[in-house]
UniProtKB/TrEMBL annotation, chain B:
This is Na+/H+ antiporter subunit C. One of its GO terms (cellular component) is plasma membrane. Coiled coil: none annotated. It is a multi-pass membrane protein.
Length: 310, 134
């Protein structure tokens, strides 16, 4: 809470963005405390890592300092206080924290918890619900991410090829950073793969793996200068990879359609239904991971590659 | 947890209102996006709070554990976070383009420039009709 207030008061946007990153990390710790391990994972990788870097790149392209506020803050403050008071009043009827008899826990969740491990054949219920029971939603969300990537590229322009800005380096030649990062990057990428393929059994999955992988490349690009990561994975590859991920996801659905079952029913993918579910979830998560990775990285390329307009 | 059961909701409301305040009162577009992020994170906390079952374990099936937290809110928020970063990126891209077009990310300055442009664009029909007379 204190960090949120500080973020409102400060006018140095650089500090605001850094505080926002800290806020995200604290939120992730809170999620961990509330048993949401998968969510904590994602929030830590996305909120504290990727969002901060993207916001800093945008700040680099615009201005660091905010102007003095010119409006009287009383009216918005009044509106906010009234809305907040109404919401607090509404919470008085809400179920208490951790109440197992709350309405949310009565409807579909017990079935997911009881049958999920048998029907889908994987212990991590979050992954089972995400990729199997709620496969339609997740497909929609993957398409949303793909569309967002497309929108950023339309707004900022597409750069082809690896030779966009070779040799420009944002933070200068830092030997210590380079050595440390060189050691870290293989570990980050390995960890991303682990999170991806271990998502069926422990916390993890395609969304987290995609973000962690992208964060590894973003780090490489930040420390070794722009153009270095582009040489490893050129932007035009990324565009094709993003489309490929959506295609894999949709393709799995079409295969089950061709076998005479509903869209995204994985039990036909192998002779044994549970095995088929497992294979389907793995493929779908792969599609999600590829799309998330390539969209996040190409958004970073688009923002960082744009030259500051003087 | 010994804290009153509604404490988490109040934190959520406070954070949500903080984000709301930033969005409606601040003129800087980047800061508005940070405000939206605050608001968004408060909704995430709300969902995760709702999913918590006291005494329940994280929703990963292990032999011998019978009570788990609700996995459904976790799934919804997991995807929402990643969608959130994608939409934030679209917002940032828009801000960058606005800065390139107007040279400012302050709402008031942009609005003032728009008004000036409107005044200019209202003039030409007048002069054209004069040209037509000649």
């Amino acid at each position: 809470m204190l960090i949120a207030i500080a973020a409102i008061r400060l006018r140095d946007l650089f500090a605001v963005v850094m505080l926002f990153g800290i806020y995200s990390l604290l939120t992730a710790a809170l999620f961990m405390n509330l048993d949401a391990v998968d969510v904590a994972f994602t929030e830590a990788a996305v909120g504290a890592g990727v969002t901060t870097v993207l916001m800093l790149s945008a700040l680099h392209l615009t201005r660091r300092w905010e102007d003095e506020p010119r409006h009287n803050p009383l009216l918005p403050l009044l509106v906010v206080t009234i809305t907040g008071a109404v919401l607090i009043y509404a919470t008085l009827d809400a179920p208490l924290l951790g109440d197992a008899s709350a309405p949310v826990h009565q409807h579909v969740a017990p079935r997911y918890i009881e049958k999920g491990p048998q029907e889908v054949g994987m212990p991590n219920m979050v992954t089972a619900v995400l990729a199997s029971y709620r496969g339609y939603d997740t497909f929609g969300e993957t398409v949303v991410i793909f569309t967002a990537g497309l929108a950023v590229m339309l707004l900022l322009g597409i750069q082809e090829g690896p030779q966009a800005h070779r040799g420009r380096n944002a933070i200068g030649d830092q030997v210590v950073l380079k050595v440390v990062v060189k050691l870290l990057i293989p570990l980050i990428l390995m960890y991303g793969l682990y999170v991806h393929f271990h998502g069926d059994f422990g916390a993890g999955g395609g969304f987290q793996a995609g973000v962690i992988f992208a964060a590894g490349f973003v780090l490489y690009d930040l420390v070794f200068g722009e153009g270095q990561a582009r040489a490893v994975i050129p932007p035009n590859w990324l565009h094709r990879l993003a489309a490929l991920g959506v295609l894999i996801y949709g393709g799995v659905g079409v295969v089950s359609l061709l076998q005479g079952r509903p869209f995204l029913d994985y039990s036909v993918l192998a002779h044994d239904p549970v095995h088929g579910q497992h294979l389907g979830v793995l493929l779908v998560e792969l599609g999600v991971g590829i799309t998330v990775f390539s969209v996040v990285l190409s958004i970073f390329y688009a923002l960082s590659g744009r030259r500051r307009q003087s | 947890m010994e804290l009153p059961g509604l404490y988490n909701y109040w934190v959520v409301v406070f954070l949500m209102m903080a984000g709301f305040y930033v969005v409606i009162s601040q003129g800087n577009l980047v800061k508005k996006l940070v405000g939206l992020g605050l608001f968004q994170a408060s909704v995430f906390i709300l969902y995760i709070t709702v999913g918590k079952v006291s005494g329940g374990a994280a929703p990963i099936a292990v032999e011998g554990i019978t009570s788990y937290s609700n996995p459904l809110p976790h799934v919804l928020i997991l995807t929402a976070i990643v969608v959130g970063v994608a939409t934030t990126a679209v917002g940032l891209a828009l801000v960058v383009r606005i800065y390139e077009a107007y040279g400012s990310v302050e709402e008031d300055e942009i609005h003032a420039q728009d008004l000036v442009e409107d005044d200019i664009s209202e003039d030409p029909p007048f002069t054209e009709s004069e040209v037509g007379k000649q």
